[in-house]
Write a structure and sequence with these properties.
alpha+beta, Jelly Rolls, five-stranded antiparallel sheet, three-stranded antiparallel sheet, 2 helices, 11 strands, binds fe (iii) ion
């Protein structure tokens, strides 16, 4: 199969937000099903959007809704790479495509300042994890494999690369604003043969 899987997912997501808007309570579950179907097969992601970088994890935009109601991003982790502790401020779904990731949720400590790490959650191909201001919005994600890249497909309820959100120092809880951007200036051709 080819890019048609991505095209079909983009069509289904566009229809979903057109019908129901992009609020978490209205679309998270149907959006999860669409993402699950997309990552059920690993035969559609074009090579340029699966390339890892030796220094830093990559976040390639696959599609952003023209009205910024959702975005789909391919995250490619080289061996040993991880995100800082960060938030999203909108709902997000992480679907594992290739390799394995470890996700850790963080919550404010009640006894003193700073953030407390929850249990590590291992994501394997076909699994979907969720983050959002309602479910718990602060986490880290890391490649769980030491010897090869891992790839997950992320779906967000907005244009994630342009959002002003936060990285955190877990020891103090201090937040610092950041805008992630995207790792490339191009997106896949959804209509390629
Ligand atoms: Fe994240």
């Amino acid at each position: 199969m080819s890019i048609a899987r991505l095209r079909n997912a983009v069509s289904a997501l566009t229809r979903l937000v057109e019908r129901q808007g992009n609020r978490e309570d209205a679309v998270l579950e149907p959006a999860r099903e669409i993402l699950s179907s997309l990552i059920a097969y690993d035969d559609w992601l074009p090579e340029p959007f699966a390339a890892h970088d030796p220094k830093h994890y990559r976040q390639y935009l696959l599609h952003c809704d023209p009205l910024e109601r959702f975005s789909l991003v391919s995250f490619v982790w080289g061996p040993g790479q991880r995100t800082p502790v960060h938030d999203h401020l909108i709902w997000g779904l992480v679907g594992m495509l290739r390799g394995e990731e470890e996700a850790v949720a963080y919550t404010p400590r009640t006894d003193r300042m700073g953030l407390e790490a929850g249990p590590a959650r291992r994501l394997r191909p076909g699994m979907v994890d969720a983050v959002s201001p309602m479910l718990g919005d602060i986490h880290t994600v890391a490649n769980a494999l030491a010897d090869r890249p891992s790839i997950s497909i992320h779906l967000y309820g907005g244009n994630i690369g342009t959002m002003r959100r936060h990285g955190f120092d877990p020891a103090t809880g201090t937040a610092r604003p950041f805008v992630s951007g995207y790792s490339a200036d191009m997106v896949p051709n959804l209509w390629a043969a």
